[in-house]
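In the laboratory, one determines a bound structure by crystallizing the protein with its ligand and collecting diffraction data. In a computational setting the workflow is compressed into a single prediction: the sequence and the ligand go in, and a structural description comes out. We illustrate the idea with PBG.
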Amino acid sequence: MAFPTTRMRRLRRTGGIRQMVREHRVSPADLIQPLFVCSGDGASVPIESLPGQAHHPADRAAEEARRVHAAGVPAVILFGIPDEKDEAASSAYAADGVVQNAVRAIRRAVPELVIVTDVCLCQYMSHGHCGVLRGGEVDNDLSLELLAETAVSHASAGADVVAPSDMMDGRVAAIRAALDGDGHSGVAIMAYSAKFASAFYGPFRDAAHSVPSEGDRRGYQLDPANGREALREALLDLEEGADMLMVKPALPYLDVLRSVREVTLAPLAAYQVSGEYAMIKAAAASGAMDERAAVLESLAAIKRAGADMIISYWAAEAAEWLH
Ligand code: PBG
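The predicted complex, in structure-token form:
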């Protein structure tokens, strides 16, 4: 039965009907707020490349976490901005490191908030790579030990979920074994399974002071042209014991998100990254786009593609828009 009997516009006629036939809804409960945490006890310092985001000392991070929770967002993901960097990323797994301190402060302030921590070495390495450099290359197996140590130190501080973003082979299994060996069998792993070597991380690297001093990340992050390889990564992470998977960035990789969704029953996250944030912010600032509408449309598109959870710099703000 085609036109004129069938008329698709009937179900678009009023707001009520549109709401009734809506297939996907973004809820504040789907969102995860990234927070950048630093040392000290002073004021938060705004990040120029990410308007509206800031570096937060532990106490300020706890205040932000309270705001996030009050907005109905159930989780934060923490990124550390350490004072010291070296060739062994020592500040990544120090018991009183910036992330570890922030985890404790947030846990005290908002006990029920889910605390996810980004597990990577790039912000803590003097050379800015995600692993240990050896002969000009990132050594996979040496890096695993430090990543596992970092994950354990986050868990010891009270993290609920650790999220390795380094893209070393075997890191999920190494982290699972180290967590279990240290009495943290209840701490979950959210694997950045399909993390692409993307230009869309530009503002983050500026914010996190983690631009590699030499070379780039194409030797460990995925080639943006490869979809099947992303699926292999996702399946390997599940086999290694990942509890949740992630695709990153989000909007340019919705096809990957959809195909990962189709091969697993595990919870799936998407990361709307700093470049996606900066693009909409810039377009909105110039008057070319309506920020709120563009953000809500992007979040709906990410959900439609198959994400259960969305990491977004707009999380708390979008949650308020959604209420
Ligand atoms: C650390 C890390 C990065 C991001 C999340 N964790 C940067 C990178 O790999 O270069 C990017 C987040 C964003 O752009 O918002 N490895």
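The pocket of PBG is lined by residues 118, 120, 122, 130, 165, 201, 204-205, 217, 273-274 (CB under 6 Å). Keep in mind that any predicted model is a hypothesis to be tested, not a measurement.
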